Amino acid sequence: MSIDGKPPMDASCAGATANGVIVAEAGGNGTVNLDDPAYGGAFNRSVRDSGAILIGASLATSRTPTCWTNFGNRVDVHGWGESVATLGYGDLFNGGHGEEDRFYTSVFSGTSSATPIVAGAVASIQGNRLALGLSPLDSTEMRSLLSSTGTPQSGDLARRIGSLPDLSSVLLPPYSTSLSLSASSSQVDPNQTVTLAATVSGHSPTGSVSFYDNGVLIGTATVTNGTATLTTAALNFGSHNFTATYSGDVANTSSSTAAPTVVMSGNIAAIINIINSILLDDDCPQGQPCP
């Protein structure tokens, strides 16, 4: 029988959930209908609600209740109640030399195996939210999310065990980012340097930015407060097309600059004018001014 209907334990669960703890609780094995009037509404949430997530068990090959799981409207979600691999027993692997601390089994079952499956889903959802800078869910919020987004029970609907958690429907994707790049100057003399600054939009981005000069990697810098900076080596004469790529992190997608940031090393326009002047002078008769 689930502990949720027993007043002392029920109060303990209620105290834990009131303090922000998510309680994933085995619904118990006994083929018991928790809605039976014999229990005097002990499992009726409108009478009392500990805030715990009550968990039933299904067959591994379908979302049909196992023959032994407890059931009823108080059961929120379910997990596999058979054929679950875990530590112990040694039927799946005996450690190679009968070492008990390396035993594995493939026959863990009941709501005892279903409950850690749901607890793992809870931990994944909380970790996902924290990685994205979101506040964690409390127990009743998590209970509602899992039951409303899970894959519905598929058989023996008279014995309600709730839905099977579906992480693909609740895990949030990383934030989209964009990357902009600027240079400390757009025109420098040959053999001078410039400082490149890459600014990442997103949700408190971390990670790194790689910088390229005409497609060649010239360095990588860590993102701090949304910006990564790099001072180039001395630039040779010519046009330098700088681009950058952001690595992304657990909360932010990767991104690249949309267009290059161009820096000219040397006054190319002035040099072209000098070359043109020399060429024009060569076309004039020696000792005579050009028209």
Count of all domains: 2
The N- to C-terminal Cα distance equals: 109 Å
CATH topology of the largest domain: Rossmann fold
Helix tally equals 4
Q: List unreliable stretches of 5+ residues.
A: none
CATH class of the largest domain: Alpha Beta
Question: How would a crystallographer describe the biggest sheet?
Answer: 6 strands, mixed
Which H/E pattern describes the elements?
HEEEEEHHEEEEEEEEEH
CATH superfamily of the largest domain: Peptidase S8/S53 domain
Structural class: alpha+beta
Please state roughly what percent of the residues sit in beta strands, choosing from under 5%, 5-15%, 15-25%, 25-35%, 35-45% or over 45%: 15-25%
Instruction: Work out the radius of gyration.
Output: 33 Å
Average per-residue pLDDT, rounded, comes to: 90
Task: Describe this structure in a few short sentences.
By secondary structure, the chain is of the alpha+beta class. The protein contains four helices and 14 strands. The strands form four sheets. Strands 7, 9, 10, 12, 13 and 14 form a six-stranded mixed sheet that branches. The protein has a three-stranded parallel sheet with strand order 1-2-3.
Describe the structure.
The chain is 21% helix and 24% strand. The protein has helices spanning 7-18, 110-131, 139-149, 268-282, and strands at 24-26, 53-58, 77-80, 84-87, 104-108, 178-183, 187-188, 195-201, 208-213, 216-222, 227-231, 238-246, 255-256, 261-265. The mean pLDDT is 90. With 291 residues, it is α+β, with helices and mostly antiparallel strands. It is elongated and about 110 Å long. The termini are far apart. The strands form 4 sheets. Strands 7, 9, 10, 12, 13 and 14 form a 6-stranded mixed sheet that branches. Strands 1-2-3 form a 3-stranded parallel sheet. The chain has 2 domains: 3-169, 3-Layer(aba) Sandwich (Rossmann fold); 178-266, Immunoglobulins (Immunoglobulin-like), CATH 2.60.40.
